[in-house]
Every structure is written in C-alpha cells, then in structure tokens.
C-alpha cells in the first residue's frame, strides 16, 4: 500500500467532513480512525476509490462517535442523516487546515503534532515515535491542542509565517525513526506551496530541498557528522539542487525577500561551489547581512561571523565574534574554529573541548571532541 | 520541545527542608506521598509532557569487565546511602523554565506531617538529535 498517497488524501477528506458540518476536533478524530483502519485493511483489500473509501469510513466513524456522544447526553436528535457529498473541496480547504493547525494560540510542539496528524495524515503512534514520547502523551498533546482550537473559525485567513515556522521545525528538529520527518516536511511544504502563492513558502521549500540534497554526504557510515567543507560533493543530489535553485530564483525575482529565501540563497551558493575552497564567501556574507536585517537574530550573527572568517580571514571573523554574547549556543565552537584557522592551535584545542561539553547533541559533541583530540595529538607529535 | 531528566539523588545536594526519613512517617503520610507522585505523573500525561518515570531499588552492584573469557568482576550489592539514585522522571516540555517549574512542583511532594519535603531535584537536559540546517 502506498502510505504517502494515503497521507496525501488526509486534508481533503478532513475538509469534506468539516464542510458537511462536523466540528474540526471530532472530524479529525474520525479521519484518524479511518486512516488507522485503512492501514490495517488496505494491504489485503485495497479499495478502487481510495478517497471515497476514506470519506465513507471517516463519516461513519464520525456518526458513530456523535451518536455515542449524543446518547450520553440524551440528545439523539442532534444526529442527522448522511448529507449528500459536498462539492469537490477547494484547494483553499487544505490551506485553512494548515492555518488552523499552526494557530498562534497553540504551543509550537502542539502545532507540530497537530499539523503532522491532521494535514500530514500520520498516526499518533508514528508522531509519538518520531518525537520519542509515549503514544498516550502524544494523544493528549493533540487533544489538548484541539480543545484550545474549539471556537476558532475554520474559514478565517491565518498567518503564513507560523505555518512556515512549524514546517521548518518538522524539517529541522526530530529524530530519525520509521517516519522520515525531513521528507514529510518537504511533502507538506510542496502541498502548501500549491495552495498559496507566497514567496516565503517557495523560499522554505527551496531551503529544504537544497539541504536535503546533501543528506547522503552529511554523515559518515559510522553516523558521525561530516562538516560542509569536508563533504563529498559528488554525493550531493543534483536533481534536488536544480529544483531548489529554480524555485528560489523564481521567488527572488518577485522582490519580496524574507528569511527563508535568504537562507536558501546561502544554501544555493554552497551548492554552486564545486569544491569548498571555491565557495563565494563574499556573497554569502552579503546574504547574512540581509538575514541580520530581516531577523536580527543572534544565531544569524554568529553564523555571519563564520562567513566573515572565510571571506576576510579568521582575524576578521574573531572581531565579528567579539561583538556577540559569549553565552550564545555554539559561540565557543565558532571561536574554536576561528582560532584553529588563525593558527592558534592551543587555544583552539581548549575551546573545542569546552564546546564539546556544551554541545546540545551527541553527534556534535563527538565531532567537537574529535577536533580537540586531533589538535592535541598533533601537538604531541 | 526539549526533554529533561528530573533526577532524585543524594549526591552533593543540601538536605531537604522536611528531612525526616520515610520509615519514620505514618502509613497515611506514605500513602499521601505516593498518591501525590501518581497524580503528578497523570497530570503531566494529560498536558502531553510526560515521558517516563521510574523508581529504583537502593541496592546497587558495581560491575566491570575483567578481560577476555572471564566473568565480569562484581562488588556489592551495597545499600549505599551517600550515592543513592532514588528515581527519575523524564518530561518533554516547551522550555527550560517549564522544566524548573515542574521540578519545583515535584519537590513539593508531602512528607512527614503532610508538609512538603522541599527535596532537591536535579534538572538535566537531554542531548537532542542534531539539526539539519546549521549554517
């Protein structure tokens, strides 16, 4: 069975139920139940009309749940007969779902979980596994999110920026489990871009594609991180790069720059360099200047210091770094790198070891420890 | 979201405010304590923040490799009180501040006289998966 096809049908099916008058929370539960049943029975007995099957089963689940609910409340007259199928759902319905699931009243974690379930068509179990929490906890997180949304109108325009933020997080933060969250984020961003004409949606998709293109080169067979400068660029996916660059160029031509387009532009400049030493760092620094202007983010300033170190030499990079708060995450790691480039290996080794102790994840910690160890071993020889 | 370990151990922390050993509580006080811990976990499950919680037996055995073909060397078991890990809870929360808030609530579990123990808990962040976009 094609699980991705099944998932791609989810928002449309959910929209049909909502159009028939089901409230979002109950409809979403019904669609989830239908998905779980589809996963169970389709392998043996695939339907001819997958979407029709899902709508029928989800509607029946919705009616069953409503009847049970109504019986509890002795209000059986609430349940009507099955109405005629509504008109073919407009693309807009899918867009409304994105807006609702990323509603500003939700915490980021709730918005991520709800988006993956209601728009992405993942099961609660799959989402729980992807974020390493028990299924019961994830189920509660999702129902809580839906309670928060009770009373929010489905037909109001939402905030594209929060939707993009949620999709960015799905792409960038998660664990590698059964579900490939990066691929799922790309699929959902493609679908969003088909629903809304927005240069930043295109920018985010380009950014994801350009980074996804490096996936095979990003880790060594032993799972350790391979830094950009040391990656085997022959293993980068040229088709994804070409697609990402094309989407980015079309977006930039519209002259409505945003942070995702700027980040994608930096990724595109890396993709454009046949070897690390041919990277156009001067242009990359210019893009970081744009990003600083757009976001005023200290993390961007930190990355800019690295780029300045490449464009104008490590001393210039260290000078840029000196202006930043030393408690920033990865500040020490950047300082170590710039000192290494500057030839001060004693300071670099000490800072790499210190950065390793502060590293927020295991592959980064191992990477920084190895760099410290390599410099220390070199000095002993 | 970020995962944190709330660790209950007796290594270097100052004594709790209500520092009466559990075996000198009344049975009702023990029940109230257990109920508080269970309710706390149940509440965190409802908020979608609970990951895991376990209590450990105090007896620990030291084990180490002793070379090819030889059984591991063991020492103990000891009921060590200076270095005891009593248990832990793992939470998945939106912020460090929320982790500290929850640890504070857990530390308010009732002890002798039904008064909060004010026990010191250690809050430790989990290392995460590496992000894809770093430049």
From TrEMBL, chain B:
It comes from the Bacteria. This is YciI family protein. Residues 17-109 form the YCII-related domain. InterPro entries: Dimeric_a/b-barrel (IPR011008), YCII (IPR005545). Belongs to the YciI family.
